[in-house]
Fold this sequence. Notes:
Chain A is mainly alpha-helical. Chain A has helices at about 20-30, 45-65, 65-70, 80-105, 110-120, 135-155, 160-190, 195-210, 225-230, 235-255, 280-290, 295-305, 310-329; strands at about 265, 270-275. Chain A contains 13 helices and 2 strands, in the order H-H-H-H-H-H-H-H-H-H-E-E-H-H-H. Chains A and B meet through helix 3, helix 4, helix 7, helix 12 and helix 13 of A and helix 1, helix 2, helix 3, helix 6 and helix 7 of B.
Amino acid sequence: MYAQMVDTGVRSVKGQAEMTTEERAFQARIDADIRIEPKDWMPEAYRRTLIRQVSQHAHSEIVGMLPEGNWVTRAPSLKRKAILMAKIQDEAGHGLYLYSAAETLGITRDQMVADLHSGKAKYSSIFNYPTLSWADIGAIGWLVDGAAIMNQIPLCRCSFGPYARAMVRICKEESFHQRQGYDIMLSLSRGTAEQKAMAQDALNRWWWPSLMMFGPPDAESVHSAQSAAWKIKILSNDELRQRFVDQTVPQADYLGITMPDPDLQWNPERNHYEFGAIDWSEFMEVLKGNGPCNRDRLATRVKAWDDGAWVRDAAMAHAAKRASRQQVA
Amino acid sequence: MGAGIDTAVDTATDAEMDNERRLFDYLLRLGDSPLVLAQRLGEWVGKGPIIEEDLALTNVGLDLIGQARLWLSFAGEVEARYAGKRRDEDQLAFLRDSGEFRNLLLVEQPNGNYGDTTARQFLFDAWHLLVLRALADSADPRVAEIAVKGAKEVAYHVERSGDWIIRLGDGTDESHAKMQAAIDGLWMYTGEMFRADATELALVDAGVAADVRALEAPWRQTVEALLAEATIAVPASGFMQGGRGRGGKQGVHTEHLGHLLAEMQFLPRAYPGARW
């Protein structure tokens, strides 16, 4: 998802007997669905895991602006351009609230940005894929934002108050994003043969990476048990992925485009779609930095930050001058 | 033109049509500058010096696109009144070549560094606000309506860009030097903002257009006061681009506009007739 494979720093979930008194009280609050707030006591591993998860989510919003920003200047109508700019603006806003939510855990935004730029912190693997045609902007809204909503709606109930509240606001905006993406796909699929081919090509390229967004299969997901116990992960990777497939296949049918999966079929006994094997080696390569755009995305962010250093310095210097003039006056 | 049979009637009709043609041209001038500037601001997406500024630039760009859409849609309606064909906002934005664009030379200048972008924005915003406020009293009610709506947004734009001129001008030595260079470099594109050609003057006489000649003094007052606060020297008013009736408003642009349009117009040009 926007936060994938978040390391909890623990090898196994502690049983009641292994917990300290404070840990037991903390877990009891979580089990009773009482929100944890920044000033409350929390285990160090919970705090660190949340910093990783929330900052990874924030970084995903910010890096995620780039593949879409790639088409702002080439949007095919003024209305589409305005909608795309508004959507990217929302993402910048999401990045800001999420950085603020993470700051309540005792890390600065500058430190999080430094961790992103050094490669220590991650962002969602999906943003390392290129946007090659206008249809990719539709596919991102429909599939990537659709997958994000699938993950984020349960997180509105997560145990950490600031993150849960940020999710509520973000989910409202994401559903608008998903609709605008689907609307682009609808226009293309009802358009000329070339436009329909563009829509199909985008689906072909974005489908499998979208399924990978939910992270590795549950059986290989080593940190999930602790995150589930802490209620910072509500549903498992495979559950979310299945829900996403079940929701999305009929939408593709309505568009009249074909899922790039010959094994995809409805299973009436399970009441779910069965789908083909995901190429996890591709996912692991992208995480390692070998996706088509890893280098470009990070380089763009680093350049923006470095090029902006004199602007930030000037703003600080001016604020300091103003403050000292006020003291004199 | 009639075949010389009833010239009096034809002449009257021609005069009305000339007014409509002028209004069409004038509406393109009003719409193309925000459109081209919004396109430039779109190039900053995801690359601002800080996330808050990324948000703010996009916000300003969105306002400008919204204004461009209103002006261009109205231009299309006016054209239909005399030309018998109606182009919508997208046909006007995406299917005209650079010689048919009527934006100011200032707004098509490349983004440069953040100081260049800020200087371009402020010099334009200060002019834009004066023009829209003047147009609030236009004899054409549609023009007045669009201008009133736009002026509310632009009042914020000029405040924001002006604040950044002050921060960067009166920030560090480096930012001061960059801001001074930015203002110096763009100054020669400000002259055409206050030159009115025959098209504009006819519409000024009709009470429809803003008389930009009268806006130079208040613009200079705003700009000079702000630059003084920013510790930036006002450039000597030397040579100005776009004179002799050969500026952006007449469709004679710098080399930059063609590239901007090539990128902006690519999809509608590559897939003629497609709906998006």
